[in-house]
Amino acid sequence: QILPGLYLGNFIDAKDLEQLSRNKITHIVSIHESPQPLLQDITYLRIPLPDTPEANIKRHFKECISFIHQCRLHGGNCLVHCLAGISRSTTVVVAYVMVVTELSCQEVLDAIRTIRPVANPNPGFRQQLAEFGGGAARKVRRYLKQRYGTSPFNDEEEIKALLPAGRGGPSRTEGAVQGLVPRARDIRSTTPFLLRVKRTFSCIPACLK
């Protein structure tokens, strides 16, 4: 758990029924191309995208940020995952936190790593986050406020509390929910779509067999 209502994980986490139920996950952002079981009564946003420095992940930021924010405002819990939970999903979570706080990309990443040490966007994604931290993040922040109103969350305080002493505030990492260590390799992906699935499909990719 990175913030109340926001979780970061990997492909295994996204089909772990016990863990999803325990954390009351209602929404999932999937950023990969692998076949995936789509679970009943969970709302999905799928962003097919390869984990390569050249991939344009930045163009999906606004869509993902709006999806996550709307989920949280309605009392839901959103899991953001890719294959390994290291690069693509971390990048989207960092972008979201940059928008709902006024913290820099590096501050947000440092805070996330206190909970999930493997979090590590590839160099191209880091560059896109740095670019996003200019005017683009402020524009999306204004968009969220215009569309959803003033945020009821204390996200900046939550994230600062994760930073080492002297950089934010008292640490809240003790007892925090730990993300699982990645168990699958990243694969590539194509076009985003949003859907609600009413049936459970069992589809395990060959790479996990």
TrEMBL record:
Residues 1-138 form the Tyrosine-protein phosphatase domain. Residues 59-117 form the Tyrosine specific protein phosphatases domain. Keywords: Cell membrane, Hydrolase, Lipoprotein, Membrane, Myristate, Protein phosphatase. It is found in: Cell membrane. Its EC number is 3.1.3.16, 3.1.3.48. GO terms for biological process: signal transduction. It catalyses: O-phospho-L-seryl-[protein] + H2O = L-seryl-[protein] + phosphate; O-phospho-L-threonyl-[protein] + H2O = L-threonyl-[protein] + phosphate; O-phospho-L-tyrosyl-[protein] + H2O = L-tyrosyl-[protein] + phosphate. It is a lipid-anchor. GO terms for molecular function: protein serine/threonine phosphatase activity; protein tyrosine phosphatase activity. Pfam families: DSPc. One of its GO terms (cellular component) is plasma membrane. Belongs to the protein-tyrosine phosphatase family. Non-receptor class dual specificity subfamily. This is Dual specificity protein phosphatase 15. It comes from Charadrius vociferus. The lineage of its organism: Eukaryota, Metazoa, Chordata, Craniata, Vertebrata.
